[in-house]
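JOB MANIFEST
job_type = single_chain_structure
chain_count = 1
residues = 303
[input]
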Amino acid sequence: MSAPMAPSESSADQANVAWLVERAPVSKEAQQATAGATDVDALLKLLVDAGHSADALRVVAAALPPREGIWWAWASAKHAAQLAGEPGAAPAVTEALAATEQWITAPDDRTRRAAWAASERAGMDSPAGCAAAAPFLASGSLAPPEIAPIPPPPGLHTMMIATAALLAAAVDPAHFDALAGAYIAQGLEVVRQVGGWNRSVELARHHYETQREQHAKATAPSAAARSAAVAIIMVCRPGGGGIGAISGGAKLPEARNGAAAAQPAGESMPARSLAAHAARRVRSSGAAIHCSVAASASVTAGA
């Protein structure tokens, strides 16, 4: 019996294009302009030629493995800080860039959490703040170290990488397309060093699927009560805000700053009851509750 044929390079290219268009995501208007793209190089050229540089940046972000993508975001943010034309970048921006670089050099949980703290100080309306947030959302747990792990939902780090590059290009609005083109070219060089589009997308896709499986397992019915408790701790705080439109600068509150009134409960307490109980406790203290849409997936089957 003959061995099964490996997928052709052409079919792999088309699969890459389809996945990146969905994952980036590419806007509907831009999709119409790129309907004939047969590989990723053609996709990017069509996007840029049609004036959809922002979509092209998102495609590059989606195509890169986490560490390489975060390096690309960091390099773009660092360039943007230099373009700002000030004698020196704001201390919080400098700190965020340094923290991101430390994670790139030594990607562990300590540097990951340090980058997240620095991103909050820099603000996620800045390229450096978004770049520094990406390591926290690329791996590990959203919960404090002493709490059972809650993996990040898949793809949030890619959103932060893309937003860092978009904000970096927007530092000089009059030259947005030129800057975006430079960052796209730099991203293409990173892809080349990874081993080309097929290899880069393979690694990015594997990471996405791994995150999706880990997050689904952690928020399955058997873990729903624990997930609900962590979600309340993370996204409910006086005067705070949860994950909203990340590209608009909304912040994911740091877990340690969460509402202390979120009372742990055993597995016997339904997840939604636990969430409601925690909300009542916070309301009774006069605090405003700001709950993220991102937490909704954690409070499901336990009702």
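[summary]
The first helix runs from residue 9 to 23.
The mean pLDDT is 78.
exit_status = 0
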